[in-house]
Amino acid sequence: MNSQEAQQKIATLTNELNQHNYNYYVLDNPTISDYEFDKLLEELMDLEKRFPEFCLPTSPSQRVGGEVTKSFAAVTHKYPMLSLSNSYNEEDLVEFDRRVKEGLQLNTSDLFSANEVEYVCELKFDGLSIGLTYVDGKLVQAVTRGDGVQGDDVTTNAKTIKSIPLQLHGNFPKEFEIRGEIFLPKKVFENINKEREQNNEALLANPRNASSGTMKMQDSAVVAKRKLDCFLYFLLGNDVPYKNHFENLQAAKSWGFKISKDSTLCIGINEVINYIHYWDKERHSLPFEIDGIVIKVNQYNQQLQLGFTAKSPRWAIAYKFKAEQVSTLLENISYQVGRTGAITPVANLKPILLAGTTVKRASLHNADIIEKLDVRIGDTVFVEKGGEIIPKIIAVDFTKRNSDSEKTVYISNCPECNSFLQRKEGEALHYCLNENNCPPQVKGKIEHFVGRKAMNIDSLGAETIDQLYNAGLIKNIADLYDLKKEQLLPLERMAEKSAQNLIEGVEESKKIPFERVLFAIGIRHVGETTAKKMARNVKSLNKLITLTKEQLLEIDEVGETIAESVLNFFADTENKLLVERLAKAGLNFELSEEQLQNASEKLKGLSIVISGVFTKHSRDEYKTMIEQHGGKNSGSISGKTNYVLAGENMGPEKLKKAQSLGVKLLNEEEFLNLIS
Ligand code: IVH
């Protein structure tokens, strides 16, 4: 193929694929199979690789992501991104309608419909608001709300969202902004949490947090996998085609945007109220979360006449649904033991339908909450489901309490291993301290050990761990390395292939570097980052176990709690034995040759503060270098600071402080010379 043909083909494929994306993600009406789509995309990406000069900014290959944004640039909104005032009941809405009519000088006592206001009712999507700017039909910028005046430029991540068009079609204005909401469909959210549960990661509280968290991720390839979606609901610009909101929404739909089909034109507030009644019932059947309804005056001349308050437009209002509440019987209180030994009291309820799902359990959090609510077994309790997945008990219906009910006494022994529970001063939770023998804690430790960010043995999920533990084959993490295929084969659902995978996965894990092994062994309070810093600093486990508390405290990010936790861990003979067995099995307990080569002790004992913007390396890279060469990163300048690594635009306060304390400033070159 010559270059002219390639250019032509790239353009055709780009158009064709964008149309297919639109059919699939906006119209929900695909005309080719996923397989055919993937083939075409592969062909395009292959051509783009060979002829990168012809790759178009609207290419669907950008949706795959891959670009990493270290920090999102702040962008000032051309039109401030206001929020809406809220209403909670019919009276609030009638009052809103009255204010609108007053503002428009319509005769409020006139009952003829000529005096009724046209409103557009829309679903209030529960996600993250976004402003998209298009120039000549191409997406040029996507900015989050931020504080309403300034937001983050998240264009790279937004481009991975398939329902956001990269190239418009039809008769669109030359330049405009369109605003909408990025959200995660309920199903996708559930799947993410299922996966997180398997990987032993903390669950995401609700789809809204999940979508805003996703949009702030640095790696757009991860964002692309998250299957975010986006509805648009607000068009801004000087040459939009119509003089009212509703028609402009329909026009935007024809250019390729995903506009909700449930947006409706209502005449007068009564029709609005009917719309709200309908969705209050039906909202649970939607495939995404909404937290209310948005009501907007349709005609722009009326919007103009009504204007804005300091915070929100006078021509629109949000109606918030009440968090649904039901009352039901508290049948029992049970206590769960987590991986860390933390005890969570759980209310077991008589099953009841709430917000579209059957609720059987609610968290009671801790002993103090039980005491404060005075909940007792046999009580009728009020249960509420807000935006969170786990329902809450709000209160007891004391009018229904039995006269013979007994005050709840919090358990004193672990429900799993019967050891005595402890509650430290000032802490809300009770703990079981029998960490090496209490079954859920042992299994939890093993799950943590095999997790993706630890030893990454993905052939070993929570279920298999349960099975191996119950069969007595593993009682701790070191036992994994003694497993034999013959022991696995008799187990239920364990085929030859899965047994083989498991053994191979365990074997493969011996290559995992020291810093991750250190994280995997599960020293309380030693997270991924701390483990990394400790590993780089001490270079081997043998060294780590000789350190005193003072020496531990010298390591970056290690404070009192962590230092004590490390000392306690290695003071325990059982833990020492475990680590010895792991070392014998061949796990990495020191830094690799390569990691050692990049390291020195040139900055040993020096405390360095990084400030400003750099050109040769990123801030994180400099932080790593400081650690690798034995130095300590410090957040603020003090008498103990030895150097400030100063980039461009170092804050004036910091500069003054450094000068007054006589701390030497190093620029990038000077720093690199120091360690070279
Ligand atoms: S219109 C000036 N329409 O709710 C009008 N907002 O406090 C601006 N939202 O920040 C907003 N669905 O993130 C509008 N159909 C909808 C909406 C909607 C959700 C969000 C939006 C905004 C907040 C209002």
Q: Name the CATH superfamily assignment of the largest domain.
A: DNA ligase/mRNA capping enzyme
Distance between the termini: 49 Å
Structural class: alpha+beta
- The counted number of beta strands is 22
**Major pleated sheet:** 5 strands, mixed
Low-confidence spans: pLDDT under 50, at least 5 residues?
none
Question: What is the CATH class name of the largest domain?
Answer: Alpha Beta
What characteristic shape results from the CA principal axes?
globular
**Helix proportion range:** 25-40%
Mean pLDDT: 91
* CATH architecture label of the largest domain: 2-Layer Sandwich
As for the number of domains, it is 6
In short:
With 676 residues, the protein is an alpha+beta fold. Strand 13 and strand 14 (357-363) form a beta hairpin. It is globular.
Could you characterize what this model shows?
The chain has 676 residues and is of the alpha+beta class. It has six domains: 62 residues, Orthogonal Bundle (Helix Hairpins), CATH 1.10.287.610; 221 residues, D-amino Acid Aminotransferase, Chain A, domain 1 (2-Layer Sandwich), CATH 3.30.470; 98 residues, Beta Barrel (OB fold (Dihydrolipoamide Acetyltransferase, E2P)), CATH 2.40.50.140; 77 residues, 5' to 3' exonuclease, C-terminal subdomain (DNA polymerase, domain 1, Orthogonal Bundle); 84 residues, Orthogonal Bundle (DNA polymerase, domain 1), CATH 1.10.150.20; 76 residues, Rossmann fold (3-Layer(aba) Sandwich). The chain contains 25 helices and 22 strands. α1 runs antiparallel to α2. It has a five-stranded mixed beta sheet. Strands 14-13-12-15-16 form a five-stranded antiparallel beta sheet, with no helix packed on it. The structure holds 2-(butylsulfanyl)adenosine (IVH). 2-(butylsulfanyl)adenosine binds next to β3, β8 and β11.
